[in-house]
UniProtKB/TrEMBL annotation:
<dbReference type="InterPro" id="IPR013708">
    <property type="entry name" value="Shikimate_DH-bd_N"/>
</dbReference>
<feature type="domain" description="Shikimate dehydrogenase substrate binding N-terminal">
    <location>
        <begin position="15"/>
        <end position="92"/>
    </location>
</feature>
<dbReference type="Pfam" id="PF08501">
    <property type="entry name" value="Shikimate_dh_N"/>
</dbReference>
<protein>
    <recommendedName>
        <fullName>Shikimate dehydrogenase substrate binding N-terminal domain-containing protein</fullName>
    </recommendedName>
</protein>
<keyword id="KW-0057">Aromatic amino acid biosynthesis</keyword>
<comment type="pathway">
    <text>Metabolic intermediate biosynthesis; chorismate biosynthesis; chorismate from D-erythrose 4-phosphate and phosphoenolpyruvate: step 4/7.</text>
</comment>
<keyword id="KW-0028">Amino-acid biosynthesis</keyword>
<dbReference type="InterPro" id="IPR046346">
    <property type="entry name" value="Aminoacid_DH-like_N_sf"/>
</dbReference>
<dbReference type="InterPro" id="IPR022893">
    <property type="entry name" value="Shikimate_DH_fam"/>
</dbReference>
Length: 235
C-alpha cells in the first residue's frame, strides 16, 4: 500500500500487546520515519478487550503486534506460506478491504543468524511459543540442527545439564521464553545466550559474567526496518 504525499502528513502506527510500557518501538519508529509518526501503544490486559481490525484501522495505518497476541488476528488476515507455518504474525497492513500480515521477526532473525555464522554453533532453543515456532520454521528452511527445551515439557530449564549435553564453547542458546523466566546458569564465556527479550534487568545483571549475553534489541530494530518496508508508506 503506497500512501501518496498529498493524503497524509503523519504516519499513524500502533503496537498491540500486554504490559508493553517498556517498549522501545516508539523511539525506533520515530527514528525510521524521521519523527513524522504518531505511535500508539495498545496495552491491553485481556484478549476479549482487543478491538477489531476494522476499529483499529479507522485510526491507524499500520499495526505491530507483540506477545501475547501474535495469534489473535491469525484468522482475519492473509499471509504467505512461511508465515502460516510460523502460526504467528507481528505486522499487519490494509490493502483495499483486505488485511495482509507478515512476521518480520522471522526476517530479522534470519539476517542476524546468517550474518553471525550462528549455523556453525550447537543451537538450543528455549521455549515453545510463537517466537520459538518462528525459529523452528527458520531452522527447517536453513537445514539447521537444533535442540529445543520448554518448561511445559522439561520443567525447570535451569536444571538442564548443558555441560554434559553440549560443547559450551560452541553453544548458542536462543531464549524465546517470556520475560518472567530467569535463566541463571554459569556456562562458558564463549557460550552465547541470545535473548529475544530486551531490557531484561535480571538477565542483563546476572548473566554478564557467566556467558556472552546478547539481548533482543538488534532484532527489534531490524524487524521494525522490515515492517517499514512491508507497509511501504511514504510522506
Amino acid at each position: 500500500m503506497l500512501i501518496k504525499q498529498e493524503n497524509i502528513s503523519m504516519i499513524k502506527l500502533a503496537l498491540l500487546g500486554k504490559s508493553i510500557h517498556h517498549s522501545k518501538s516508539p523511539v525506533i519508529y520515530a527514528e525510521l520515519f524521521n519523527n513524522e509518526v504518531e505511535y500508539t501503544l495498545l496495552d491491553i490486559a485481556k484478549p476479549q478487550s482487543i478491538p477489531s481490525l476494522d476499529e483499529i484501522f479507522k485510526e491507524q495505518m499500520g499495526l505491530s503486534i507483540t506477545a501475547p497476541y501474535k495469534t489473535h488476528f491469525i484468522n482475519a488476515v492473509k499471509m504467505d506460506n512461511t508465515v502460516r507455518k510460523i502460526g504467528g504474525i507481528n505486522c499487519i497492513k490494509k490493502e483495499g478491504s483486505q488485511y495482509i500480515a507478515t512476521n518480520t521477526d522471522y526476517l530479522a532473525a534470519k539476517e542476524i543468524f546468517l550474518r553471525e555464522n550462528y549455523n556453525e554453533r550447537e543451537v538450543v532453543v528455549l521455549g515453545s511459543g510463537t517466537m520459538a515456532k518462528m525459529f523452528n520454521v527458520l531452522f527447517d528452511e536453513l537445514n539447521i540442527d537444533y535442540v529445543q527445551y520448554s518448561r511445559k515439557v522439561d520443567g525447570n530449564l535451569n536444571d538442564i545439564n548443558f555441560e554434559q549435553e553440549f560443547n559450551l564453547d560452541k553453544l548458542l542458546i536462543i531464549n524465546c521464553c517470556a520475560r518472567a523466566f530467569h535463566f541463571n546458569l554459569s556456562l562458558s564465556k564463549n557460550t552465547i545466550f541470545w535473548d529475544m527479550n530486551y531490557k531484561h534487568s535480571f538477565h542483563e545483571s546476572s548473566l554478564t559474567n557467566k556467558l556472552t549475553y546478547i539481548d533482543g534489541s538488534e532484532l527489534l530494530y531490524l524487524q521494525a526496518v522490515a515492517a517499514k518496508k512491508f507497509w511501504n508508506f511514504t510522506l
